[in-house]
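Follow-up to my post from last week.
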Amino acid sequence: SYELTQPPSVSVSPGQTARITCSGDALPKQYAYWYQQKPGQAPVLVIYKDSERPSGIPERFSGSSSGTTVTLTISGVQAEDEADYYCQSADSSGTYPHVVFGGGTKLTVL
Amino acid sequence: QLQLQESGPGLVKPSETLSLTCTVSGGSISSSSYYWGWIRQPPGKGLEWIGSIYYSGSTYYNPSLKSRVTISVDTSKNQFSLKLSSVTAADTAVYYCARHLIAAAATHFDYWGQGTLVTVSS
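User reply:
Got it. Predicted complex:
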């Protein structure tokens, strides 16, 4: 089955730049999406279609894509950015796109 | 503002069927642009897509759960529902409902319910 691979954890100091990667063979053919999840809360979409930012999401959140890897970048990390981050894409091999989530990355702000 | 709210029993016995309903408010479930999906998250673990449904009743499921899952829709109530049969402790999770957008090379969830914890235990 199709998988998306993320590092389990990333740590940065406040004000630094955090980069979270997500790798998957189908990423060149399917857009990737990023969700932020804080404890006890539902996920919130922070990046769509690889690099687009929904309204209301701070400009410090950005996304990029290169081959089979997509990257979520958080510039000038703030304490409030500490959360779990999940990438999501799809396996397009069937009639319908089967949704796949990465395993999640815990961002720790030191 | 679109809102989704999950409801259903918080405790289910092993081998029984888990049943949840998602009520959509602030918008119509019959919108032609969207599917409606279920996602779950075991305690301390990651997200897993369960399946999705169109207002017409067209469904598609995660192959790993397909044999046990049924998703249905009631447009008159602006609701859709999940049934998961033969549950075990491994099905203990927070269950989310969400609006599911599907387009060419693009599929994602933009509005989520708050989630409801379902525990499988005797």
